[in-house]
Design a protein that fits this description.
By secondary structure, the protein is mainly α. The protein is built from 22 helices and ten strands.
Length: 516
């Protein structure tokens, strides 16, 4: 092998650490995006989420610009997306490296790395995801998307640390995230073998023009590369490297003492030869694998088949004239359009929840976002959730469009109002209503202190369902109930001024507090 092997090893080690620094920097930005709603981070938030492969595929389908770019990069240069742009993959690699450092200090290998032959069953995951995507009968990547899993984990940790408590759904998300990281500590980036994004990009990188090369004549089967590989895709004993699973971390080349590994141009003839060699080995093990595959598929059809049929029946019944199960008694964020649009595109990444400045977007039992008006109400001038959504499940609305979009509808029960039940002055709902759908009119009675009482009058035509009236209402039970609608519709906007329609003016608040 020409050149100095030691100098080559050192060069690749530096390149490996530089690549890891870039990936960790991207991971830090993702963590900041999923744990901060500061408006200053809006540009970074939109850039990171729009550049994700799965989000772009759900948003723009196969011929979207971002999808074509990442596919072309994989076909020409290998899986650089997985090497630096995927936050879940980087998180797994960081955990594995920390485990390796701990093992080095103890001078004992607790979890020795070695080559892992992946099961052919892993191709079933992207197939199911693809069928669900094209038929719109199952949320695309909802349960296997790396961005969704990372968003669940990062957001769940943030909620747990800031609120000191968490709902059962948050604990479930954290449990899945912890399992992924636990496998990473033991055997590296194991989730990447089952990831639909990684599998699809791996298929493109099998015969990429540039990639990692292993010189079988120079290799001495020392095993350094096998122990360094976070994907366990290098087989030192048989002197093979699976390019479709390689994430180009360069760790193998940085640990090779004889310089047998290199990144560079791979002639198509050599790529086809490597592929043919792998297929010959696969054919030898075909009978053994086919038996286990039949058992897996039989068990999968037995367990999952009835559930999928029930889910499909539930899906179709939910999207009936009733308005869609995603919006019955629950409020979808602005820009969700309707149940069919939102359910077919949302991957449950919770980026919208992270971007919400008042923190009212929470995950429902289907891991999709909904508005929780017990924590606040939708801000009249805010459009952050739609701009950060990577799949356009929430359309990016302009401010004037958002201010006219009805996402829910309030229902006012006059008998529950404190003005009626306690003869107490209030008016908080009218003060907080941004479209003046609520106004105060004289009740014809006085409070115990002798002041005249006014009672709310609700005009549903101008209601946009922001939830402000429900949030500030002091009555128990509440005088307002907010119900989700499908589809979300446009409203006339703000109610005309009193001078234009002749109606009584709204009361003027004294100071900053509500008058109750």
């Amino acid at each position: 092998m020409p050149g100095n092997p030691e100098r080559k090893r050192l060069r690749y080690k530096l390149l490996s650490w530089a690549r890891l620094c870039v990936a960790v920097g991207a991971l830090a930005l993702f963590i900041r995006v999923f744990t901060s709603s500061l408006l200053q981070w809006r540009g970074v938030r939109v850039f990171l989420m729009d550049g994700q492969f799965s989000g772009a595929l759900a948003r723009d389908a196969v011929f979207g610009a971002v999808v074509l770019v990442w596919l072309a990069v994989a076909a020409l240069f290998g899986r650089w997306y997985c090497a630096a742009a995927c936050p879940l993959g980087t998180a797994q690699e960081v955990v594995r490296r920390l485990t390796t450092l701990a093992e080095g200090r103890k001078r004992k290998k607790l979890f020795p790395s070695k080559y892992v032959s992946p099961r052919s069953l892993r191709y079933l995951i992207p197939c199911l995801a693809g069928v669900g995507f094209f038929l719109s009968v199952f949320p695309f990547f909802a349960f296997m998307d790396p961005i969704a899993h990372f968003g669940h984990g990062a957001r769940g940790l943030f909620v747990l640390l800031t609120e000191r408590s968490a709902a059962p759904l948050v604990w479930a998300n954290l449990a899945v995230f912890a399992v992924i990281l636990a496998f990473a500590a033991v055997r590296g980036r194991r989730f990447c073998d089952w990831c639909p994004v990684g599998t699809l990009l791996g298929l493109c990188s099998r015969t990429s023009l540039f990639g990692m090369k292993l010189d079988r004549e120079t290799c001495v089967s020392c095993g350094n590369c096998e122990r360094a590989c976070p994907m366990n895709c290098v087989d030192a004993k048989n002197k093979t490297l699976e390019r479709d699973r390689c994430i180009l971390c360069l760790s193998c080349a940085g640990s090779c003492a004889v310089g047998a590994l290199d990144y560079g141009f791979v002639p198509p003839a050599r790529a086809m030869e490597e592929r043919a060699m792998k297929e010959r080995g696969e054919r030898r093990a075909f009978l053994q694998k086919s038996g286990s595959a039949l058992i897996y598929l039989a068990g999968l059809s037995y367990l999952v088949g009835p559930a999928l049929r029930d889910l499909k029946r539930f899906w179709r019944s939910g999207l009936s004239d009733a308005g869609g199960f995603m919006f019955i008694d629950r409020v979808g964020p602005p820009g969700a359009v309707d149940a069919a649009h939102f359910s077919s595109r949302c991957i449950g990444c919770l980026a919208c929840a992270a971007a919400c400045p008042v923190g009212i977007i929470r995950a429902d039992r289907n891991f999709r976002p909904q508005l929780d008006y017990t924590r606040g109400y939708c801000q009249y001038n805010c459009t952050e959730c739609g701009h950060v959504c990577p799949t356009e499940a929430l359309l990016p609305l302009r401010r004037d469009e958002k201010q006219r979009t009805r996402i829910a509808l309030s229902d006012f029960t006059r008998a529950n109002c404190v003005v009626i039940t306690r003869r107490q002055s209030c008016g908080a709902c009218a003060e907080v209503c941004p479209t003046h759908a609520l106004r105060m009119v004289p009740l014809g009675d006085t409070a115990p202190d002798g002041s005249p009482l006014t009672v709310p009058v609700f005009d549903a035509e101008y209601c946009i369902g922001c939830g402000g009236c429900f949030n500030v209402c002091p009555a128990v039970p509440k005088a307002f109930v907010v119900t989700g609608i499908s589809p979300q519709v446009s409203t006339p906007g703000m109610r005309p001024s009193e001078k234009e329609d002749g109606k009584l003016p709204l009361p003027v608040a004294v100071g900053d507090d509500f008058p109750f």
